[in-house]
Amino acid sequence: MNRHEFLRALHRLVRPRTYLETGTATGQSIALSRVPSIGIDPQFSITAELFADVHLARTTSDEFFARKNPLAHLPKKVLDLAFVDGMHLSEYALRDYLAVERFTTPASVVVFDDMLPRSVDEAARHRHTRFWTGDVYKAGLALREFCPDLTVLEVDTQPTGVVVVLTPNAARDGILPGYDDWLDVAMAPDPQDVPAEILSRSRAWDPEKLLASKGWRALPKLRRSKKVDAAAVRAAFDDVL
């Protein structure tokens, strides 16, 4: 299963009311949406047919989220599903996540692309290969280390894996304690010291098995609850957590 097949399945199961992505490029991923959506990319060139009410922002994600009301296009100022697929450097991916998280509920789902590089060369910060993930895998590791309230799941999609984040916490308000110290380590020069479990995908979920969890179908009901919390979401996913 590739990333777009996995994302298509999430749209079907999660039934989001809103969707946002960074790194829209040619529109292959935003074309999967059927709900009010935002696509952010300073150089998008849409070739896919879009089927939703979409606002395309030709700007960087940093500039977009610095706006007074970045979600003005959406009928609800909340993001039920988001896809982070912008600049292939870990600090950009982590900033995108923290910006998105400000507009989530515990029942929201955030997906990172290109999180399981197949080689050290593919994970380089400076591209020198045809296929390139950059070092965005570090963003998932940082969330595991600094945000134990999150559920971070690596998924063995083809070709370069994704990470799914459950139970985001809007109360973090874009602030990650320890970010500056992490940044000093994250920006280490190539070659990158890619952990063996990332290269081997030893803890990555089979996408079809993860999609079979009953938790996905529980999310729409949980979203309607006035007191939805992370504990309720984790309980819904008790068959995989």
Explain what you see.
The mean pLDDT is 97. The chain has a single domain, classed as 3-Layer(aba) Sandwich (Rossmann fold). The chain is built from nine helices and seven strands. The chain has helices at residues 3-14, 61-65, 90-101, 137-146, 179-186, 196-200, 207-211, 215-224, 230-236, and strands at residues 19-22, 37-40, 54-57, 81-84, 109-113, 151-155, 162-166. Strand 6 (151-155) and strand 7 (162-166) form a beta hairpin. The chain has a seven-stranded mixed β-sheet with strand order 3-2-1-4-5-7-6, sandwiched between helices. The chain is globular and about 45 Å long.
Strand content: 5-15%
User: What's the Cα radius of gyration?
Assistant: 17 Å
Strand tally is 7
CATH architectural group: 3-Layer(aba) Sandwich
SSE inventory with pairings:
Blueprint: H1 3-14, E1 19-22, E2 37-40, E3 54-57, H2 61-65, E4 81-84, H3 90-101, E5 109-113, H4 137-146, E6 151-155, E7 162-166, H5 179-186, H6 196-200, H7 207-211, H8 215-224, H9 230-236
Parallel strand pairs: 1-2, 1-4, 2-3, 4-5
Antiparallel strand pairs: 5-7, 6-7
Helix pairs in contact: 3-4, 8-9
Main attributes of the structure:
241 residues, alpha/beta, Rossmann fold, 7-stranded mixed beta sheet, 7 strands
Short description:
It is built from 9 helices and 7 strands; from the N terminus they run αβββαβαβαββααααα.
